Amino acid sequence: MSLEQAVDEYLDVPYVTSQPQPQSPFHKFDLYVPKDISARLLHPLICFVHGGAWRSEDKSDHVVLARRLACMTGCPVALPNYRLTPKTPTPDNFLRHPEHAKDVLGFLNFICAVSDLRSQGESPCTLDGRGTAKKPPGVPGLPYEPHQLFLVGHSCAAHMLCSIFLNVSSHSSDASDGNQICPSDTILKRTKALVLSEGIYDLDSLISTFPTYRSWFIEDVFGAHDSYADVSVIRASTRYHSGHIKWLIIHSKGDTLVDEEQSQAMYNHLKDQSARVYKSFDELLEGHNEILRGDQYVDVLRRFIQAVPALE
Question: Most CB contacts within 10 A, which of 32, 65, 181, 284?
Answer without folding.
Answer: 32
